[in-house]
Amino acid sequence: MSAITFIIIMLSTAFAMEFVAFLAHKYLMHGFLWSWHHDHHNPNEVEGFFEKNDLFFLIFAIPSFFCYFFGSLYNPALFAIGIGISIYGMIYFLIHDVYIHQRFRWFRQLDSKYSRAILRAHGAHHVKIGKEAGESFGLLIVHPKFFGKRKDWQKKES
Description:
Layout: H1 3-32, H2 34-41, H3 56-73, H4 76-100, H5 113-127
Helix pairs in contact: 1-2, 1-4, 3-4
């Protein structure tokens, strides 16, 4: 396998993971695995540093590990997929846990239209405490309405 093919597979996987994460968030985390995810929407229920929601790390880390393991033995494309999953995991951790939720205080002053849109979209997601009626389940691909300066994207509840 050529280096270019390896890189294309790796980057394509990292990109595709945004859609996998969206679907997992909407249908698993806000579905039958809500018992793991609910404390993320209810921070007052969290005792200590870790949330049950942190268990989702395993859902993505285990397939990545198997791709590394079997890819290193049998198939370089599978290895590239494992790296792509890990790249997305690192991006997700840095943006979601470090930047948005400030679980680590490594960087706080990102200020661009895109970083503000990510914060607005995630804030709109967390407005709903329950598992139903949520919006903005992705992380990196943000609906254009969250790029607006006005807060007309916020829906007021009666």
